[in-house]
Each structure stands twice: as structure tokens, then as C-alpha cells.
Amino acid sequence: MRPQQLQLYLGTTMVHQTAWENLGDLAAALETLFGKLPRRGPFVDCVEFILDHAYLDYLIVPWQQGVTTPADRDQFALALHQQQQGRLTGDLRVAFFDSEYQKPGFAALLEKSLFELMRAAARRRRLRFCGCRTLFAVLCQTLTRKLPANALYACIDARQSSFALRYQHRWHSVFTLHLPAADTAKHLETANGLAGLPPVDRYVIYSDQGLQSARQLPIPAVAVENP
């Protein structure tokens, strides 16, 4: 699901896409989209939503002693998000893409009203609602069986791009940038530099090009001057 565009996939193959304008139109647009499910062929009984970063807030949540249950962890993430925003935030749902013992966790936050709208749309079509995934999750699960020690993950879009970095087997930072039109390499260089890390492995997905656009890009060579 992207701003003003919905795409329907069976596996990794896109079978239909439709436009929508605002959240008031989303339920009807989803109904139209689900109506394009094939009546013959593979049996489809469930749906999963893959969300563009425009609908999510990302957060690196530090390990906190005393936070021992998933509910405590989610509440801590919500409090941290509110503190970082400097204001009261809406009714949000928290999901951790990755969370290891005594290490920072990588969380995504989504408005509960949007989550409920998607779930209701699936139920109207008698489809089992399998939840949501982020483009970062798609990127990691597509290209890396095991999370690398050091990496830069990028979700590239014409309007804005989001970046998540790992360093020394830990999530280091995540942020979104509104960057002028430029090639992907320049975006990655900018993000890597802003994080203050040495060049790391780079994994990219283009939100306007579909799920099969995930790829690994080479680390640029660093020139070394002879003394």
C-alpha cells in the first residue's frame, strides 16, 4: 500500500493496481482491489498488507532493564516515541521487526484506525487477515537469511526515503529524509554519512517498483592516498 496507489500481489507477482485519494476512499478502493482476486487458479484465503513507509513511524528502542514482557516493551516504545515527537501522539499500534535480548529493537508504529480499516476490509471479503509487514521487513527477509553485522537498509521513494542501519550486530539508527532527485548511490552515501558509520553493506528496495526491486548494492570503493 502506497500513497494514492494500491497494488495486489499473488506471491511476488502483481496482478492489479488501483488508485485512491484519501483515507476516506481507502475502504472502497480495497473492496475494488480484492474484487480482482482470480476466481480460478490458486486458492486465496488470506491477505497480508505491505505498507509503504509513509504510513509508519520507525523507532530504534534501546534495551531497558526491567522491561520484561512484550506489553511492557510496547508501552516503553510508545513513551519513547512520544518523547521524541515532543507532543502527544495518536492511538498507535507497535510491532517489533527485530528485538533481541540486551540489544536495541527495531519497531514500527502504525495508527490503530488504519490497522482496523485494513482488517475490516479483509473480513468483508472473508479473507483471513495476516497482519502487516514493512518494506524493511520485506527487504531483510528477501535478501538476507540472517541479519548482517553491519548494513544499511534503504526504502527509496521519489518523495522521501527511509534508512535503517546496523552496526556491530546491533540496530544503530533509523530515519527518513526528504532528498532532492538524485541517484540511489548518492542517497546511500548521504545516509551512511549522517549515521556517522564507516561504509557498510547496502540493501535497497524501491517502493514504486514493487517487491521484486529488492537488491544488494556494492559498497563504493574508498580511495587511499599513498604517503
What does this molecule look like?
With 227 residues, the protein is of the alpha+beta class. The chain folds into 2 domains: 5-53 and 113-217, no CATH class; 54-111. Helix content is 27%, strand content 33%. The protein is built from 5 helices and 12 strands. It has a 5-stranded mixed sheet with strand order 10-9-8-11-12, with helices on both faces. A 3-stranded antiparallel sheet has the order 4-6-5. Strands 1-2 form a two-stranded antiparallel sheet. Helix 1 packs parallel to helix 3 (112-124). It is globular and about 50 Å long.
Short description:
With 227 residues, the protein is an alpha+beta fold. It is built from five helices and twelve strands.
List keywords for this structure.
227 residues; alpha+beta; 2 domains; five-stranded mixed sheet; three-stranded antiparallel sheet; disordered C terminus
